Amino acid sequence: MLSAIGKQRTSKVLATAFLLAIALSLWLLYHPDLGSSTHILRPVHERPATIDTSDTASVTADIVHYFTSHPLGPPYKDVFGELGERCRILDDWIVLADTTNDASRRNMLSAAIEKTAAQHFPFLKNPGHLTSKAPLSELRRSFTPGSAGIVIPTSEGTLRFAAHLVVSLRSVLHSNLPIQITYASDNDLSAQSRSYLQSLVESGPPLEFLDITTVFDDASLDLQHGSWAIKPFAALASRFERVILLDADAVFLQPPEVLFEHGAFRAAGAGALLFHDRLLWQHAFAERHEWWRSQVRRPPSAALNRSRVWTEDYAEEGDSGAVVVDKSRADVLVGLLHVCWQNTRAVREEATYRMTYGDKESWWFGLELAGARYEFEEHYAAVVGWLEGEEVCSFVIAHVDEQDRLLWYNGSLLKNKGREEMKHEYEVPVYWMVDGEWRKGATKQDMSCMAKGEPRRLSGDERSILEAMIERARKIDQGLHLR
Ligand SMILES: *[C@@H]1O[C@H](CO)[C@@H](O)[C@H](O)[C@H]1NC(C)=O
Ligand SMILES: *[C@@H]1O[C@H](CO)[C@@H](O)[C@H](O)[C@H]1NC(C)=O
């Protein structure tokens, strides 16, 4: 007991000393009175408009030394916040390196960036360039400047839904965004399945395929057996700068292109857009909330302050079936690195997937802790389904756009994806509801309903879109059966 308290105290003292060191070094780095100064180009960060260009090499070296002498080991649960603080420094260094005109300063910063990135994110080591000293900048250089696209991770198990989604996007919604299908080695998605997916494309650019294990060192990841864990890595590895990451079972009612026009990216200056889960189980997960609070060591962001999970103790925050990230922004890039770290094997097994469900909460948590600007959709999850008395019921959760029009829902076009015996039952939903009260079904096989809101009918257009998607899906199912 005593030693536990002693340990706790030591780590508090260490943490305080560390924060002081960082505060001092940042003051030294940015203080306008020291040396000449140059302008920082990026407006989104609240930092002084000028930076110091005098010698900062020794401050930087001290911080790198501090990091290497204080590796972040288990219990990982306790170091989420600390890693977030380090990500913020990485962000600062990247912005400084990207904006300085002084080559020696840039080289010094780049060395610190790469050393820190390699220490905290060993998966960045590209299996094809094992001797590379700069895997993070190589990864950044692999992004196509100005590009945007959809990334869909899938394995054999979700091939059918990935096929439905690709055809829905291209042949029904007429989306022309490039689509990258990601997977973890040939065992995860065979060459035959990949060419099958390619054969479904009738318009727009051909599908692109990316085996994540050729981009990142899989030793600390085990993505083939990691289920959802592949998602942040797929977003990070993609050549697209702006990524719409989709679960294979997502159903869109509007072309995903509209996501890039979301106000979050304009007025709010965010670099990531996330969707909410259902408001459920208030005050039921005290341990989870205590943990989140213990790791968020700074005043919460505006996005978190608006969260009813954060402020009113509801249990579930994020639905990560769709996530939008802009990796051209250093804050979002380091935030994404944090999300990836949470989904590495050791961390997800010990903390992430125990404290919360799958990858879904790792997105806002990583972006928040790393100081990235992100936004959530305005509403908590809606429902799309069928009228039962005054309630709207189904197995899926839905999301609306800024004009409160249906945008997408999870759980595929099937009436009930969760039941094997219903795997060929499709049904177009008729009603939807937002901002009511959820009544959750007892098990995954039971419908959940929303009550106390206004049931709204899907428009004729929305129903025809879904009818067309279902017709295509049935054809795909027949084709897969014959294969
Ligand atoms: C969020 O709320 C906290 C506590 O009320 C406050 O200190 C912080 O400044 C707020 N954050 C923003 C970005 O407004
Ligand atoms: C839709 O998402 C919710 C919340 O994450 C989940 O509980 C539900 O099972 C999903 N529906 C389907 C059919 O997968």
UniProtKB/TrEMBL annotation:
It comes from the Eukaryota. The chain crosses the membrane at residues 12-30. It holds the Pfam family Mannosyl_trans3. It is found in: Membrane. Keywords: Glycoprotein, Glycosyltransferase, Membrane, Signal-anchor, Transferase, Transmembrane, Transmembrane helix. GO terms for biological process: protein O-linked glycosylation. GO terms for molecular function: alpha-1,3-mannosyltransferase activity. It is a single-pass type II membrane protein. InterPro entries: Alpha_mannosyltransferase, Nucleotide-diphossugar_trans. One of its GO terms (cellular component) is membrane. Belongs to the MNN1/MNT family. This is Uncharacterized protein.
